[in-house]
């Protein structure tokens, strides 16, 4: 027997339409007009009507730090996937660092799989790591099922996941190219950052000021790294993905490389598309991330990059930590709120959708744009576009019921991840997630996780 979910706004790859989404055995079997239901070969057992609440494809987040195994006190599969379900996400792809062991070998991948078992409320996968000395593990990781690889061109903040220099990277690129999988790059180079930081320390700059932190990670660090990766992409012919683009000054280089035919995709994140450096107060460590949140004018240009198709997708870079790491203990009162001492990362799984929809409404973008940026494009990057990322017959019945006309104020009870701290607290946002369905199971409804863990690890078909 099948169920039909009706809405006046079903967001499909060809546009938003009034339709019924018909689900049987966890799959979408039809998307049709309400008056066509009676003519379907499959009998309808139950019908649910959502009126003007939109049915969006379940969101896909390809940039999440779940931190399990090893640092589960930071987050963990159980809490991260609950937060994801509350935010309208049905698939997460976990980054290979911040967990212990880091996901740089097949053995480490199996440890992660064991840790996830029975804990996930949404589906998941794990990127593999490309680090200084694991070139021989690249193809085995690909064969074991990772959808791609992540590397850092700068120290990543955790000792076990080593940055990769150009020589080490070039030793890995033939295997990455052979795998056919994307390489996700944290694109900042240390040279401009080291130079800027040394100058700030010589000038006794105040590290409580956000302007000091911003100056310590200049646009040039991103621009130079992206230009390096474009050259390597041209030479080694691998799929390149730039993670968390923060500087709009790199857009022209990326657009030119794409016009040349290079296989490059780009993401940005809610915090770069919502906040502005000028509005961040002194000691506001909750806003610290790397690359940093830049100016309001830069934010506007990133949105232009999305509009032009130079930026392909929006993902969270959900990077939680224990609260004390955001405000570390200090010996002197004047060191309270120093941004150079705080952990860099912003957690946003439960609120990313309304954050972006709030901006979409201001800027004239549609639910169709939102679904492309936050569902279909990330699913394509991870190689699961035939399973997730769209409301189409044959896809998994993953969708979220979303009221784009409602508003709410962000409070801690809306966050659902392990440590309810957020730079979004107190903000009024537009768009409310009312329900999330995973393969037809109702996993979240009106603020409550409603089912036992039903998530599973996805595999490339």
TrEMBL record:
Subunit structure comment from the entry: Homotetramer.
Q: Does ATP-binding count among this protein's keywords?
A: no
Matching Gene3D superfamilies: Metal-dependent hydrolases
Q: Which molecular function GO terms apply here?
A: allantoinase activity; cobalt ion binding; zinc ion binding
Entry's family note = Belongs to the metallo-dependent hydrolases superfamily. Allantoinase family.
Q: List, in alphabetical order, the GO biological process terms annotated in this UniProt record.
A: allantoin catabolic process; purine nucleobase catabolic process
Q: What species does this protein belong to?
A: Granulicella aggregans
Q: What is the protein's name according to its record?
A: allantoinase
Q: Could you name the Gene Ontology cellular component terms for this entry?
A: cytoplasm
